Fold these 2 entries.
Entry 1:
Amino acid sequence: MVIAVAEFKISYYQYLDAESNIVTPLPFNHTQLIKRYKTMVLTRVFDLKAIALQRTGQLGTYPSSLGQEAVSTGIGYALKPEDVFSTFYRDYAAQMMRGVTMEEILLYWSGSERGNDYQNPSAKEDLPACVPIGSQYLHAAGVATAFKLRKQPRAALVTCGDGATSQGDFYETLNVAGAWQLPLVMVVENNQWAISVPRAHQSHAQTLAQKGIAGGVDCEQVDGNDIIAVESRIALALKKARENKGPTLTYRLSDHTTADDASRYRDKKEMERAWKEEPISRLKNYLISQNSWSEEEEKSWLNHCSEKVEASVKTYLNSTPEPMENMFKFHYDKPYHVS
């Protein structure tokens, strides 16, 4: 006798398809969409400038967010001020929306600890960017545990790339989040690559979203090039987390970092397909088709973004070098001296 003791499904959410067609009724009006579009464009202008700084020796190794602006922007709009954001690296739109300045992001990637010392009070409780793969998931689980113990209606949100889903830290977080029903939202920004390792070689799972099933975590897949779908689904997951209804797991056009050359391992046709699906053109084409945006407005906004980014870059480049002893400054609660 064979009895099915459990069955699962992974739902996929999309509002705006790759051809800029509405496939699900929109939860936002055009004014709200323009705000989100502007945020994505500003993020891309900043990102391109940061790459240029690295290529000219004015910035350290830098991981681009090119093509992932919709995920980061959606996260930024979905989070509430009282929530805590635990990012990996690439979520510049969300960081800036949370109060982290462009100068601080540039300082971080130049190797300065001042880049983690956020001056804006609205960003003070967010965690700094985490370069070790996957460890930010454990940090976020700790934050979510604190919220639960304090009975606070707050949520923690953590991000990672698809490569981190092969790490033990990721699975341990899923397990404890499900077992303790933590107010935690876990977002996997699946760009199909873990540096040079393709998605197909990382896991034989049909989706990355289903990895949370064993931990008893709600799982779903969202079109990461659709800002509307990303924000809508993450906002619902955060609401559920704040209401103590458990955790949720939601499932690149650039090189992995500026130290990488993706052309050595990534197929040219794959890149061409990715560019046809990227988030900024997708939303721009829709807004233009609805007479809510124009090429004149596009040019004006790009000029504004360039001026804003250049001003931040000037501040960054004019910052005074840190004393060498600062590399030890944050290691201990009190200065440690060896006699």
Note: Residues 26-328 form a domain with the Rossmann fold fold (CATH 3.40.50.970).
Entry 2:
Amino acid sequence: MTNKERLMRTLNGQPVDRPPVSFYELGGYHQDPHDTHEYNIYSHPSWHDLLTLARTRTDKIVINSPRFTENEKDYPVISTQEVIGDSIHYITEITTPRGVITKRARRDKDIDTGWTLEHFLKNADDARAYLSLPEDEICDIDISQVLKCEEDIGTTGIASIDIGDAICVCAELFSMEDYLVFALTERELFLKLLERAHRKILKRVQMTAKALPGRLYRICGPEYASPPYLPPSLFREYVVPFDTELIGEIHKSGGFARVHSHGNLADIIGDIAAMGADGLDPIEPPPQGDVSLKFVREKYGEQLVLFGNIELVEIETLPEDVFRERVKQALSDGMYGQGRGFVLMPSASPISRQLPTLAYRNYLTMVELAERAWY
């Protein structure tokens, strides 16, 4: 059974020879060890063996998305960047009919992520300024990079379309603390932000589903409205109606919708299932989450393909013998009883330039145990 067959049969709830094992974003496709750019952490020799392992022995789920051409409305945007020490600083200023909103971000040389130092929106006045901007119109879709990805990986995996839902887009306009206060105290205004974001996202999903039927999607964002951040009642207001519509469009084309939500699930997993989701990740074990993988398998495993249950911190810190037992438990719980399927996967990927040797050995353990299908 090829990796692609194994993944597609899992998504369809069909029998497989063993559970798929994925390293999440780390598939060895987007990570280029030969790129000598000083901000490419994967050129460090410590990554070589892990990238080879990811390319040759995992069931790759390569995150990819189409590009869109938009009829951009005419409003002033000034973007600048400068290098300060080992960091690149980015500044974006947008002049709205109600004033200027500013975002400042930073990327460090030895860390494969970015930090937002100043967010566009800080208060209700900024939100109204943002809403005063004209909305861009999507004109065309370019699926060439998705098709190239699928051609490149062949039978070794599948491409996965990535979507940030309305709450993902809107929450990230604020700092986390400002977002939480705003979402709790300015519900009517926050809903206007969500509705604006959703119109654009829905159009993109409709175009993607038509151009690329039958693909797997990852929907990011619901965790922003999960407890303890917001109460379940606001999850049902800020997430459920918008993501239900996205999932419906994905299903029209024969696609599969996987919901990505870190942290607590106990109070929202029923809503995620009710939205029509086909999959869920990363199903973090306590204390990072509040439900066990076995519980999710028992209650929702017939509907949902379950992805994950291994924490990155476990990969980077647990002794090999302890980590081996942890992976065995995840495989046992993920394949418990009857269910649609399970994909062994970490909750995130390392982001430091130098990969710890222990991390590679623990990743290898994940592959070896999944390949042996010991359960």
Note: Residues 74-134 form one domain.
